[in-house]
Amino acid sequence: MRKEWPLVAFTILGQTAVGLVWFFDLPFLLRGRLPLFGWRTAWLIILAVAAWLMILAAVISFFHLRHPIRARRALANLRTSWLSREILFELVFLGLIGLIGWLAAFRNPGSGLLRGLLVAASIAGGLFLLSMTRLYMLPSLPVWRGIYTPLAFLSTTLVAGAVSTELVVRVVAGPGAFALDLTTVALVLLAGEILIALLAAPRHGFRGLRPAPSLRPGEAPPRSLHRARLLLLFAGMVFLAVDRISGGTDIMNERGAGPALVLALVFVLAGEAAGRFHYYGLVPRPGETAL
Amino acid sequence: MVTQYAFFFNAAACSGCKACQVACKDRNDLGPGLLWRRVYEVAGGGWEKKNEVWVPSVVAYNISMACNHCENPVCGLACPVKAIFKREDGIVLVDTGACIGCRYCEWACPYTALRFDVRTNTVSKCNFCYDAIDAGGVPSCVASCPQRALDFGDLAELKRKYGEVRQIVPLPDPAQTEPALVLKPHRDAARAAERAAEVANWEEV
User: Fold this and answer.
1) Cis peptide bond N-terminal to B170, omega within 30
2) Nearest in space to A152 (alpha carbons), one of A282, A55, A50
3) Alpha-carbon distance B127 to B131, whole Å?
4) Which of A7, A197, B88, B198 is least surrounded by CB atoms within 10 angstroms?
5) Rounded distance, CA B205 to CA B36, Å?
6) DSSP state of A290
7) What are A122-156's pLDDT values in tens digits?
């Protein structure tokens, strides 16, 4: 389970990057506008952070390969392999946000082109998330096959995306400036994620799946990881609520994020990491009990 | 011409001696902890009350299992670099020179046939002793079984000879991969599910 840390980091970073782009860009796109006027700085920061998260995720993902040099052929099986598709959409998503950022920063393209690229990047992010989810929903692994995998991956995307977008927006423009009340949205999403974990987490949720006998060791991840995830996410909720009640301003100036929001993000990411280690611990590698 | 090589395993005859496991390990020079063929000890049940008398309800049998060279090899379908391929005679092989060591095939195979080899840093699995087969020989596991519980041949031929059973507890639903496998179940296998039988020797497999 601990050996899967590159996959834990890759999935959480990739999902946070998709959430960032979705939460910042979709409110503008839905109103038929572009975040060029008044929000240009925040937009460029969001794109830069998302791009760096994706690059970091890509670099970390190499640590779970034993022959990373050979991975240059990783797109060879797009016809049947969800891993090939995940890598393709990862590259497309990263390429598109890089292109959008470059155009917005150094060129003055038409708004139609930018809007089209933003829609394409949002869709590519969604396909990246979908392929990441399908990758684990293998018929051979009932504990990952069910509804829990898409719910867990989507909730990480939305919760981490909402909190980190709010942090960037708050630093650039101060509280209450963005069209969407992301603190409240994040609070609701976080409550949903905790509920999903309580009910549906395989092995340790109230109605979570217990695998039938198979040729795969039936070891369960430590229950403490499940509890740690719930506690950390709840702590994230508490700090979000504190941030909401206190108005979200920094003590020192009106702009900037207060410490409660920063702590909320830290606890949310820690909770997501605990949950993801629990997730990978559900399926031990065959033969490793003998080693 | 063989179109799909397959294994036959007679669970009723297997004594669990693990000669097949050791012969495979020896022939393929596998390192410590690495097993291409494994013998699972399946056990369940306990005691049950019958007319005021407690009687044992134990079920116990062995399953010798390697790669089943499936007709629908999901390991190969999951591999991003097409390092797992199927020969014309149905034998599924791993190209260790192309494997990137991502280990997704380990998760994809419901028979846990793919095993990570720490010496090559790639996955590895039963290759049906294809070099022996090509020379007109026999896979080492089949040759070593003192009970004659293992056999091999063309899948259609094995089905004609031994029947069509492909699943006993705790093997997966064969519809997932269409394994090239024919089984003769142990008599306890019929009651294994109701008596919650499961693998009892995880440390060895």
Assistant:
1) yes
2) A282
3) 9
4) B88
5) 10
6) G
7) 999 999 999 999 999 999 998 999 899 999 999 99
N- to C-terminal Cα separation, chain A: 14
Q: Which residue bears the tokens 């980091």?
A: A9
Q: Is B165 on the interface with A (CB under 8 A)?
A: no
**In Å, how far are B36, B67, B201 from B40, measured between CA atoms?**
13, 14, 7
Q: What is the pLDDT of residues A15-39, one digit of tens each?
A: 999 999 999 999 888 888 888 878 8
Phi, psi of A211 (to 5 degrees): -65, 145
Q: Which residue of A has its CA nearest to B41?
A: A215
Q: Give the predicted TM-score (pTM) of the model.
A: 0.92
Residues of A in contact with B82 (CB under 8 A): 73, 76-77
How many C-beta neighbours within 10 Å does residue B81 have?
22
Whole-Å CA distances, B162 to A153, A278, B133, B159, B177? 46, 43, 21, 5, 20
DSSP letters spanning B138-165: --HHHHH-TT--EEEEEHHHHHHHH-S-
Angstrom CA distances, A262 to A132, A201, A234, A246, stand at: 28, 27, 15, 14
Q: Which of B24, B64, B79, B102 to mutate to test the interface with A (most CBs of A within 10 A)?
A: B102
Instruction: Determine, for residues B170 and A214 on separate chains, whether the beta-carbon distance falls below 8 Å.
Output: yes
CA–CA gap between residue B140 and residue B7 (Å, rounded): 12
The answer, for B108 touching chain A at a CB cutoff of 8 Å, is: yes
Contact B108 A80 (CB under 8 A): no
Pick from B34, B198, B202, B205 the residue to mutate for testing the A interface (most A CBs within 10 Å).
Answer: B202
In this predicted complex, what is the ipTM? 0.90
Question: A165 and A23 in contact (C-beta within 8 Å)?
Answer: yes
Tell me: the pLDDT tens digits for A150-191?
999 999 999 999 999 999 988 888 777 787 889 999 999 999
